């Protein structure tokens, strides 16, 4: 098996003083795991193909092909990419934009993606009065106007919530109730329900649905069929899964992720 280097080794954004720089990565050439790291510049992570899950600010974020995850400078983060992932990184100097001061998922328009691709072709040391600098300023203005998307799963370091999260991540088809989980972690049902809201901000049912959404987006973006994803998540029918997905993101899987590596999904 050939050794694949970490994506961190491919670029150090803090060596550039430019307002924004872009960098493209094909994870066929890099290890899928990107260990926890930190840099001065803020970072926008976009996937052209496949998907990336990113852990930052006590949340797990999913990066499907039509969205990006914004991580402000100074925030420790790690990531894991699917085998088919092709990713664009946009690094933004602190104070150079009106992007939020907290992690969030942003909708990405084709125009913004095209501008990021264009910036990736520019030298990283472009001059302040250059075409690249003007492109970067317009792109950052557009990014600051983009709608937010709910593509995050709150996580907790509490041992009992973490045990449930690890178990459901390993086996997302598990349909055990709050009462079942309370018995497993030696708590009362009421205490566990209260603890879940306290630690994640969500009820158990809402938190599990968000976990299913994150898993579904990751698997669909990596090329897994809708039927297989529905079975993986324990849905009794494909239609039940599609209904959940449509309520969560506003469209069916086939419309949200129209193609992955040239293969059409279907609803």
TrEMBL record:
Q: Which residues form the HTH araC/xylS-type domain?
A: 162-259
Give the transmembrane ranges. Answer: none
Fetch the CDD domains from UniProt.
cupin_NimR-like_N
Q: Is the Transcription keyword given for this protein?
A: yes
Keyword presence, Transcription: yes
Can you tell me which residues the record assigns to a coiled coil?
A: none
Write the signal peptide boundaries: none
| Matching InterPro entries | AraC-bd (IPR003313), Homeodomain-like_sf (IPR009057), HTH_AraC (IPR018060), RmlC-like_jellyroll (IPR014710), RmlC_Cupin_sf (IPR011051)
Keywords in alphabetical order = DNA-binding, Transcription, Transcription regulation
- The entry's protein name is Helix-turn-helix transcriptional regulator
